Amino acid sequence: xxxxxxxxxxxxxxxxxxxxxxxxxxxxxxxxxxxxxxxxxxxxxxxxxxxxxxxxxxxxxxxxxxxxxxxxxxxxxxxxxxxxxxxxxxxxxxxxxxxxxxxxxxxxxxxxxxxxxxxxx
Length: 121
Known about the structure:
Blueprint: H1 4-30, H2 35-56, H3 67-87, H4 91-113
Helix pairs in contact: 1-2, 1-3, 1-4, 2-3, 3-4
């Protein structure tokens, strides 16, 4: 049975993943002027991030990669989301997001490797 800390870590990880997709969509909508291009970026950028995440970084990823590969994907998605958040004018929030995402990812990764978290990544 998982402890409360592991459950909280997994829940926070999920919230951070959803926030990352939201920040990427927000940036996509804000990045350009033509509405059609805004819509395309607001859907395609988070869609691409979610696809890469699902393929390589999700607990039930379709393509199993070593932990280092999973961490690279997470760093790219969370880092991109932080840059997106900074790009829409919220630099302080971007730094806070990046730090929380990095700390949570490290803690959840260690917990899962020790057998305390979800199966897989």
